[in-house]
Amino acid sequence: MKILVLNAGSSSQKSCLYDLPPDHLPSHPPESLWEAMIDWTVEAGHGELTVKTQGEKHKIMLPTPDRQRGIAQMLKTLVQGDSPVLGSLKEIDLVGHRVVHGGTDYHAATLITPTVQQVIAALIPLAPAHNPAHLEGIEAIQNLLGDIPQIAVFDTAFHRTIPPAAAQYPIPQAWTAWGIRRYGFHGTSHKYCAHKTAEILAKPLVDLKLITCHIGNGASLTAIKNGQSIDTTMGFTPLEGLMMGARSGSIDPAILIYLQQSHGFTPEQLNKSLNKESGLLGVSGLSADLRTILQAKSEGHAQAQLAYDMYIHHFQGCVGQMLASLGGLDTLVFTAGVGENAATVRADVCGGFSFLGLALDLEKNARSPQNAIISSPDSRVTVLIIHTEEDWAIAAECWQLQMGT
């Protein structure tokens, strides 16, 4: 069964193709037949397409910012060019999409219908950087492959187990009728990392108290107990929680009222400022990329130092929040771009929890090994780096839905 996965971000489109046997689901992620990524930020009015097949890597400049046309050109590399992997696009059996926001309607992988597309569109105000990109991908597949089955795997689904005390906000209860509650995001990654952790530790997932830290340009923590999400840092939208690359994370909501009343900010200006001009970028004035912040910090840049110090402070505070929800902690997991690669961040965050008996193996941490324990043998809290496999997790959920398992 050939499953195409589309994982759309606000400024990128990642895709891969798996060929899975129809009689069983592999216990470990198999090697994909083809991988591709479009980066829409390389040059204004263009995109850069990177394609990997059979150990080869090719880069192609896309002459248009039209995302549907870009996706169409990306998919052509499956059947054309130097290393085609399919004779025809009709060999694809189904397409899985990561969808950031599914609201309260969807608790699991779901076959995409016109109604599902309408719900994804209706939730654009709650995920303005992502849900439009998901719809573009869905529509591009419809235009290219007609009525091929398409399945949505929602980031919010894993967090539907969060109990009301953590999921509800302390607001007038009439507002909840408008869907205002904590949804949580990065659920596909958090779920995958939880299962991978149990596998690495050779322990039942239900016996573990986990905090999974998905730390990239967007970032969230999740408290997992009995194999279920019981608390998370992102909320009604992906803006809440940790300080991130260009997002503020949680701030006093009265700041927004003040900016509107005293400085004439519009909702559009506030949305842009908080989602695209805050976080590491807003404080440092340099970049949303942590690598740039670390380099500038090492050169004595005062605002970069402040941005980093704030980043770690907020990170530790959110770990403490998840720790309280769990009532203890036996395993801390780092994943995603920063979580998997930034040894300094891991060391500084973990340094704040030495009172729990948490201790890193500094040599292992410095190497950033994938799918490995980096805590010292005598640490009372096990610390791991997990390489998140969101695309594989999406493909697996699609396979299970299609096969009725």
Report the strand count.
14
Strand arrangement across the biggest beta sheet: 5-4-3-2-1-6-8-7
**CATH topology type of the largest domain:** Nucleotidyltransferase, domain 5
Residue stretches low in confidence (pLDDT < 50, at least 5 long) are none
Overall mean pLDDT stands at 92
Whole-angstrom Rg? 21 Å
Series of secondary-structure elements, N-terminal to C-terminal = EEEEEHEEHHEHHEEEHHHHHEHHHEEH
State the separation between the terminal residues, measured CA to CA: 15 Å
* Number of DSSP helical runs: 14
From the coordinates shown, what is the CATH architecture of the largest domain? 2-Layer Sandwich
Structural account:
- It is a single chain.
- By secondary structure, this protein is of the alpha/beta class.
- The protein has 14 helices and 14 strands.
- An eight-stranded mixed beta sheet has the order 5-4-3-2-1-6-8-7, sandwiched between helices. Strands 11-10-9-12-14-13 form a six-stranded mixed beta sheet, sandwiched between helices.
- A hairpin with an 8-residue loop joins strand 13 (372-373) and strand 14 (382-385).
- The longest helix has 25 residues, at 302-326.
- The relative contact order is 0.11.
- The mean pLDDT is 92.
